[in-house]
Write the structure tokens for this entry.
Amino acid sequence: MPPRENGQEQPVIRDNRKIDPETGQVRDASAAEQAAEQPPAAAAANGELEAQLAERTADLQRLQAEYVNYRRRVERDRAAVREQAVAGALADLLPVLDDIGRARDHGELTGGFAKVAESLESALTKLGLSSFGQKGEPFDPTVHEALMHSYSSEVTEPTAIEVLQPGYRLGDRVLRPARVAVAEPGDATPASNDDDEN
């Protein structure tokens, strides 16, 4: 670039217009391309710069993907830790809920104590605690614990005929299985063993 009067370089202006402003004629495209061509050293430098740009862009995309994965992992771990903390606290309160249930069954849950019990149960429900285990439902060993076993002709499959202690779950996680008495189909008395007679 030619120097200015004050010692600074003058800017380079390239006219890439397709129509010549002085003559009004359409410029020859090949002549414009030849004028715009760069020397081979400049073209090689541009190729190297483009390769560096592509490499840095790929690095930034990898870093962005790693950061997004890290954030997802941290959020998932944070949710798991929260769920474990809530489950631990609720598991410690299950004996209290058992005492409240026994008091309700015996008619001793009256007055202010009844209001406190209702408040406690509603607060635990808001945290996601739910009870399960009903009389007459099919026995499922993944959510029931059989404490008693009998045979009955009134059932067609292993059935919980009595709930001795309700089970509790937090979302899909079982905090405590329901403790039940189970009846299987069959006679009330166990069948005799024919091998004993021989």
